[in-house]
Specification:
This protein has 283 residues and is α/β, with parallel strands linked by helices. The protein has two domains: 76 residues, Orthogonal Bundle (Arc Repressor Mutant, subunit A); 165 residues, Rossmann fold, CATH 3.40.50. Helix content is 60%, strand content 7%. It is built from 15 helices and five strands. The chain is globular, with a radius of gyration of 21 Å. InterPro entries: Homeodomain-like_sf, HTH_RpiR, RpiR-like, RpiR-like_SIS, SIS_dom, SIS_dom_sf, WH-like_DNA-bd_sf.
């Protein structure tokens, strides 16, 4: 597996059972110990059945514990060792606290970049190019990301739509056509409202592009093209805060790729917007 074990576990973490999360946490915090012990040793330490540990390694993409341990040892300590990037202390200066927040965001972007997939990018580009209309959906904090994307894609040669109200989003999704494309954003991929919107868009025959931090979430499983954002949770920040940075960057990437693909029409569209906006600027 080309991606680090840490990132693979992170992308599936929210869908793990409590016992599986206990196994995952121990692996992330003690990779060297896990790499030098047997499955029975790990079972005794965690007080979890060997069969559960074996199934966990299968769930994250390995043939079994031996295959997983070999990958763990091959990757080496530098890749598998968990890093708490923010790790802010009361004694830190204001500048240090701010710098550690930046470090966390930078780490989130680097981790998410490793999960970018060529096939998903190609699929998303085709859906956007062929779309009669593109709709941006998200609730709560994800709605802010959807609004930012809508504001950005207004400059593209596309018909784009976005509402901040959930009920209107649901109505829009139900009225979509097979020629339309929906971009759905949810950190957990388990937001009931966003899943309902996705189901409505799916029933209408539209293509679904999904941005989430959980590759096996219910929302991700509904998507035609899925992008995974990776984020670390810290004491005063939920994962959703860091994942927002990653999701904005994924959407930036899709926007730039589309604009390059339809360069002539994009230039014309941007020129119209800039000409109109320029009239509002102070002289």
């Amino acid at each position: 597996m080309s991606d680090s074990i840490r990132l693979s576990i992170k992308s599936m973490y929210t869908n793990l059972s409590e016992k599986e999360k206990k196994i995952a946490d121990f692996i992330l915090e003690n990779p060297v110990v896990v790499g030098s012990n047997s499955i029975n040793d790990l079972s005794e330490t965690l007080e979890i059945a060997p069969s559960t540990i074996f199934q966990f390694t299968r769930k994250i993409g390995y043939q079994g514990f031996k295959d997983f341990k070999l990958a763990l040892l091959t990757q080496g300590r530098s890749e598998t060792e968990i890093t708490i990037h923010e790790n802010i202390y009361d004694s830190d200066s204001l500048l240090t606290k701010a710098q550690k927040v930046f470090d966390t965001n930078i780490s989130t972007l680097l981790d998410t970049r490793k999960f970018l997939d060529q096939v998903a990018l190609e699929q998303a580009l085709e859906y956007l190019k062929d779309a009669e209309a593109v709709y941006f959906f998200g609730v709560g904090g994800s709605e802010i990301v959807a609004t930012d994307a809508y504001h950005k894609f207004l400059r593209a040669p596309l018909r784009v739509h976005h509402s901040t109200d959930y009920h209107i989003q649901l109505m829009e999704a139900s009225l979509m056509k097979p020629s339309d494309c929906a971009i759905l954003i949810s950190h957990t991929g388990r937001s009931h409202e966003t899943i309902e919107i996705a189901k409505a868009a799916r029933e209408a025959g539209a293509k679904l592009i999904v941005l989430t931090s959980s590759s096996q979430s219910p929302l991700a499983l509904l998507g035609d093209a899925v992008f995974v954002s990776i984020a670390e949770e810290t004491e005063f920040r939920s994962e959703a805060l860091s994942s927002r940075i990653a999701q904005l960057s994924i959407l930036d990437s899709l926007y730039v790729i589309l604009m390059f693909e339809r360069k002539k029409a994009s230039k014309e569209s941007m020129a119209k917007v800039r000409k109109r906006i320029a009239k509002l600027k102070a002289t």
